[in-house]
Amino acid sequence: MRYVTHRIALGLVSLLLLSMMIYAAAEVLPGNPGRLVLGREATPAAVKEYNHKLGIDRPLPVRYVDWLSHAVRGNFGANYNDGRPVTNDLVPALKRSLFLALFAFLLCIPVSISAGVVAALRRGRPTDRAITVTGLSLAVIPEFVLGAILVTLLGPAFLNVFPGIAGTLEGASLWTKFDSLFLPALALALVLFGYIARMARAGTMEALDADYTRTATLKGLRRRDILLRHVLRNGLLPTIAVISTQVGYLFGGIVAIEKLFGYPGIGYLTLTAAQIKNFPMLLACVLVLGVVYFVATLSGDLLTAALNPRVRLGSPQ
Amino acid sequence: MTVADDNLPRLPIVVEGAPPLAQQPLDTPQRIRRETIRQIVRSKTFIVGAIFTLFWVTCALVGSHIVPFDPINDSFTASYHAPTWSHPFGMDRVGRDIFSRVLVGARSVMEVAPAATLLGVSMGSVLGLLMGYFGGWIDNLVGRVVDAVLAVPFIVLAILVLTALSAGAEGISVSSLKLVLVIGIAFTPIVARTVRSAVLAERDLDYVQAAKLRGERPPYIMLVEILPNVMGPIVVEATVRLGYAVFAVATLAFVGYGPQPPSPDWGLQISDQYADVTLAWWAVVFPALAIASLVVAINLIADTVQQVLDT
């Protein structure tokens, strides 16, 4: 229990720091919002009045506390450009992105974990080398590059198996959604593949070398039982934590992927908000991404703790 | 007499018919460094990575002088012409030779990524030395800042800061210098954390204690005593960061935070031509392969360096 509260407190401190940094960046760097919105020709009086209406003439810390206190209650203010509440567009966009992210993980996790385990079992042989090098290479290629290559191969240009553009997919059937989002999800999944496979490989190798595995082997247990009950149960534990931290990484790739495939999720929204300098929306997007990462890593850690008594009870390590 | 004897170099005793004496390696730092470099340079992955990286560096340096066609000015004569022998990568929407554009396009990435890496690694090393050596509140603060920075994808943070930095009500203008600064500053705390943990391992070793007892000042101890001993992790971090920097620069250029048309930048080419991928896949796939080959090449180098220095 102490572990859980400690973990949550640390995460909240990070989120608070993040909110301060992004607020300062968005408020201090661009200069005068009234000038920004009203344009160069506006009179100084009009600019002053506009800033007063938005409350921007107050000191920075006051504005920050005001913004944060509204933000934690789910109110991120109104768009600079049309005055509509930020959340109107933010919530559906976040849902779309989460759907895409979930799809990517569904594609990625079974394949990469099995690949990692196979690589560990074939350690040092060509299969292992092939999996490791492929994973390493895929992990470092930008997502949109993989997306562009995938579209060329599987998209309309050659094989024409999947569409190269997703669109909003509003009211589309689940099947259409999976079909349209297959290529973007695959691009994201391929990037994750390397990390998860590497982690699964390392964990499995460690478990294979452990004394309990040797004992089990010498006891004469069947190879399948040793693998399932002893090696994988222990070896794949660290992989869970890695998968959860990869969520943050995934959302970095989602920005470029959503632009490539024209899928209006939170990454796309971030870009459009930035293009028109709609800072309330931009701040909201960044903060929400921070929260997503916080929740993902937290649940990963809690899951690890739940499965591993050594972490849960805090053994001296 | 006996005292002097001990100081004399011991001559090898030659025994008739015995195998020749193995030459004792002298463990001088230079010798060790040369051996490490030889191990790295001999690795196959390093050679492949180095060849590709050198190729793109050459293109970045002299590309505009060696390309067969004008990479910038359009001709409109052959919009989206498929690859031919004289135009191996085909033509783009406005009839520019994509082969030439891909070669010249290396430049904008190479202008930013190495400089940003250098900035981030040098600032991060200084910060990491301070954190590791002094500990205390700087250490705590930077640790928390790193956690906060890592909570949001780097690309998103960069978009926020670069948007805030570009003047004017609409549109984004990003110079190479701004990119270098933003990426370099974002890398700083991450590098600092790596260097810090390396310094922590050295801080309590005898040679540092000895320097302290000699009355050396902290800057001297950090830079002259500790820094040479943590160069390994710093070099590894630098190569890994360089890969990330190329990744970041390409992605930012793709989402509009980088060179503007008619620049032949790779990311820009992809975002420019993607809408017509059905008509002309070659306009998208060759810049994509260029980015992929460069990041993979750099990471092959990074991986080799890491493997050799970690063992």
In words, what does this structure look like?
The complex is a heterodimer of chains A (317) and B (311). Chain A has 317 residues and is mostly helical. Chain A has helices spanning 2-28, 33-38, 44-54, 60-71, 86-121, 126-140, 143-154, 174-180, 182-209, 211-219, 223-235, 237-261, 266-275, 279-307, 309-312. Chain A starts with a helix and ends in a 5-residue tail after the last helix. Chain B is mainly α. The mean pLDDT of chain B is 82. Classes of the chains: A mainly alpha (317), B mainly alpha (311).
Question: Helix and strand layout, with pairings?
Answer:
The complex is a heterodimer of chains A (317) and B (311).
Chain A: H1 2-28, H2 33-38, H3 44-54, H4 60-71, H5 86-121, H6 126-140, H7 143-154, H8 174-180, H9 182-209, H10 211-219, H11 223-235, H12 237-261, H13 266-275, H14 279-307, H15 309-312
Helix pairs in contact in A: 1-14, 5-6, 5-9, 5-12, 5-13, 6-9, 7-9, 7-12, 9-11, 9-12, 10-11, 12-13, 12-14, 13-14
Chain B: H1 2-7, H2 29-42, H3 44-66, H4 98-134, H5 136-150, H6 154-165, H7 176-203, H8 206-213, H9 218-226, H10 231-254, H11 266-273, H12 282-310
Helix pairs in contact in B: 3-4, 3-12, 4-5, 4-7, 4-10, 4-12, 5-7, 6-7, 7-10, 8-9, 10-11, 10-12, 11-12
